Amino acid sequence: MPELTINYREKARALLEADAEKILRLIKVQIDNLTMPQCPLYEEVLDTQMFGLSREIDFAVRLNLIEESEGKALLDNLEMELNILHEKAQKSD
Questions:
Q1: Contact between 85 and 31 (Cβ < 8 Å)
Q2: How many other C-beta atoms lie within 10 A of the C-beta of residue 31?
Q3: Distances in whole angstroms, Cα of residue 26 to Cα of each of 31, 60, 66
């Protein structure tokens, strides 16, 4: 595989991971400071952000920059971390 392709793949993976981390931080701030997980605004932000990331991942897969399994793993990992945050918020109420 040419080095340029490898660099694009690495960059795509890094950007997607950074976007996933940004979503996690956004939701954490929202839980900690703004709204509770039962709030419609919380659900709207979460749904919108997750949809956007899934579209980014789909685009990267279609460009052959990441494997579909990598994208699924990234989304699954983010969902798991978000569930942990949600459970913590529920217990602190």
A1: yes
A2: 20
A3: 9, 23, 25
